[in-house]
Design brief:
heterotetramer, A: 144 residues, alpha+beta, four-stranded antiparallel beta sheet, 36% strand, elongated, B: 84 residues, five-stranded mixed beta sheet, globular
Chain lengths: 144, 84, 144, 84
């Protein structure tokens, strides 16, 4: 399958196997992972991904077709995971195979940019509150 | 009266406190903007979300908010996407 | 290992595991494979790769360091296979992890370009002779 | 006399018919270009390859072909790279 929205683990080896079914000389892959982003509201511990599934699948299929036409990509992988994912978990795998490296790399980049902009998928953050900061209390002077 | 189903995602769902609901609106003026008006009335916190959302009807993007609706249409609120 | 010249199979899942040891949000991978290139001297069936090993390892290590400095890459993989490889076999895996996707993708592209230009590795082709072309002999006219 | 080891790769190896060899050259004029001259004499097919090759001595790129050589130095002929 080249287009997938799933609650199951995304596996890079399976994505590569899908892209390497032909005899293309070049395979490019991008994997997005849950990052422990820090902010004033704490550090991200999990992301919840949801999609408007039928619309998202149509959009992904359109991206697949466009990448073949524009970059001469032979095979495309557009896999996005849904549900609650912990830090370090792969949330998306995008890949592209082509006869030559320039097309595969450019296609891969194009696919992830367009996926983020055009496909109805959303993340919601879960953050852990930062440990309360202890004010650095001036300690009583000893000597000078 | 026309029954319309509404799907709300991400920040829209959080603002409304629910992911799906049904509205009944007068069949005469059954347009996208009438549904949005009704949603803003019911869920005031949804107003700023709707301002930046795309609207889909039956899986198709709707360019104009004056687009007409038929009974049983499914209207989806898409806040800015954040996949990846 | 982030830098490798090996006669053993290159595995994409291992390269990903190496790049995903931290909590980076973005991993980009490029895999080069033996392509059945067609030419007047026949179609490529195998490529033989050789390297000037100590110089190549020094050059790969320099690339690794440069990618970290220039793109803020956290982890880098530069694996090249040596020996005789059949069509479809992975000859090179290059990868890069970084907090964000732009750096990982740009780093990956940069690494494969520089590897090809600067690292003393060579391929030699083995081609199978093309099947001898049969001249299209004009067949005796039947009617017109 | 200085003994110098020579490594030949890819098209250089094919042109010479071997991947490594040893040369003995007068210690007085022991420079990179003297070794290349000797190689061209022995293996005429190597001449066009040398014209487009980089030369390494003991693993270091040599910019000038007048660079001096010491006994037991290892000189490597690098035709244009084609990895990947």
């Amino acid at each position: 399958m080249s287009v997938l929205l799933t609650r199951r683990t995304l596996r890079v080896d399976r994505a590569y196997a899908e892209l390497a079914r032909g005899v293309d000389g070049a395979v490019a892959l991008f994997v997005g992972r849950v990052r422990p982003d820090r902010g004033p509201r704490g550090t991200v511990t999990h992301l919840r991904y949801e999609a408007h599934r039928p619309v998202a699948l149509t959009a992904l299929t359109a991206l697949d077709r466009a990448a073949r036409a524009r970059f001469g990509a032979s095979r495309v992988v557009l896999w996005h995971r849904l549900g609650r994912l912990g830090v370090g978990t792969a949330s998306v795998i995008v890949g592209c195979s082509a006869p030559h490296r320039a097309a595969a790399l450019a296609g891969c980049r194009h696919l992830i940019e367009r996926l983020k902009a055009e496909v109805p998928i959303w993340k919601t953050e879960e953050r852990a509150r930062p440990a309360r900061r202890r004010r650095a209390r001036p300690s009583p002077r000893r000597g000078r | 009266m026309a029954r319309v189903r509404v799907l709300l995602f991400a920040t829209a769902r959080e603002a409304a406190g629910r992911g799906r609901l049904e509205l009944t609106i007068p069949e005469a003026g059954a347009r996208v903007d009438a549904v949005l008006e009704e949603l803003r009335d019911r869920y005031p916190r949804l107003a700023p979300v709707l301002a930046t959302s795309r609207i889909f009807v039956n899986g198709e993007s709707v360019a104009r908010r004056t687009a007409p609706l038929a009974p049983d249409d499914e209207l989806a609120i898409h806040p800015p996407y954040s996949g990846g």
